[in-house]
Amino acid sequence: MVLPSKMPQLADLDLLLSVESYGSVGKAAQAHSLSQPAASIRISAMERRLGLRLLERSPTGSKLTEEGEMLAKYARNVMQAARELLEFGSGSQSADAKRLRVAGSPAISEHLIPEWLNRSGFSFGEARVEVQTGSVDELRQLIRASHVDLAFIDGWCQAGSQVQKQFGDDMVTRYICDDRLAVVVGSKHPWARRPTAVSVRELAGSQLVLRERGSGLREFTDDLLGTARAPRSYVEFPSSAAIKQAVATSKRVTVLNLSTVRSELAEGRLHLVPVDQEMPAKPIYAAWSERRDLPEYAQELVEIAASKGSPMPVVVPGRKLRTSRLVEAKTTTKNIA
């Protein structure tokens, strides 16, 4: 058949799906390496060709109209078929077949994904691995827009219903491991050599270095220390790297997840401090789209992450550090719809 002139271009349909995922023409344009005016022109041209109003634009963003949502439904099928066509045409030995696109929360991307890749036996001469990072909302958008094959996402002690609400019913998730939190100090701090556990009241009264307000780590820390009703002085930083640097070179104290400080603990730049109560654990999940099968490399990475987790040092008052498993990973894949 001869395609009619008003048939949308694949690139324009892909752009529309990105607007749906990001809720913004500007963010969608950035993902497609376009300027916002260029993206707006392409969407408007598609609206004129089809005779449909696809977007509701506002100062706070853009969302699809009812007609736009219907077109997006068909567009997802078209884009999936196009990807399958490209894979068929390029063959199983093509560069695309040997590409892994993975994303994760900042701490996971920086500290755990590299370790999992190395443990998996990946040959970087054979596979092209692309790792991105972002917030939970951004990672979910990347999955739905098919910009990544797989994402690793952490959550602060979430119940099943909360996890479902955060991921949505079009996602498949797999529990990977737990990342326990810990009190950490530098070598200059007296607690680095303390044989007994510190109390929450002592922690609340110390000179603290904290993550910025609004972060999950900061919310937990505020809840923990708020029960002590002790005056606190603190410094805020927007990244764990800055916090580690500040603590390592001072007599301040911080609370971080263990996967973030493994290198510094091994080198002796930071030290774990025992606390007189159990610290909570942060669950880590792998997530991917229910509509797409995981590529071979992505499947391998999930299996390695779930089986290996991450070995974590455990501090016991009056004893040397010992190494234990972060957690025994569960091995079932579930759809949380």
Write the topology of this structure.
Elements: H1 10-22, H2 25-31, H3 36-50, E1 55-58, E2 61-64, H4 66-90, E3 99-104, H5 106-119, E4 128-133, H6 136-144, E5 150-154, H7 160-167, E6 171-186, H8 200-204, E7 207-211, H9 216-226, E8 233-237, H10 240-248, E9 253-257, H11 262-267, E10 270-273, E11 281-289, H12 296-308, E12 311-314, E13 322-325, E14 333-335
Parallel strand pairs: 3-4, 3-5, 7-8, 7-9
Antiparallel strand pairs: 1-2, 5-11, 6-9, 6-10, 6-11, 6-14, 12-13
Quick tags:
337 residues, Arc Repressor Mutant, subunit A, D-Maltodextrin-Binding Protein, domain 2, 2 domains, ten-stranded mixed beta sheet, two-stranded antiparallel ribbon, 12 helices, disordered C terminus
Description of the molecule:
The chain is an alpha/beta fold and 337 residues long. It folds into two domains: 10-90, Orthogonal Bundle (Arc Repressor Mutant, subunit A); 91-337, 3-Layer(aba) Sandwich (D-Maltodextrin-Binding Protein, domain 2). Helix content is 40%, strand content 24%. The chain contains twelve helices and 14 strands. The strands form three sheets. Strands 3, 4, 5, 6, 7, 8, 9, 10, 11 and 14 form a ten-stranded mixed sheet that branches. Helix 1 (10-22) packs across helix 4 (66-90). The protein is elongated. The chain starts with 9 loop residues before the first helix and ends with a strand.
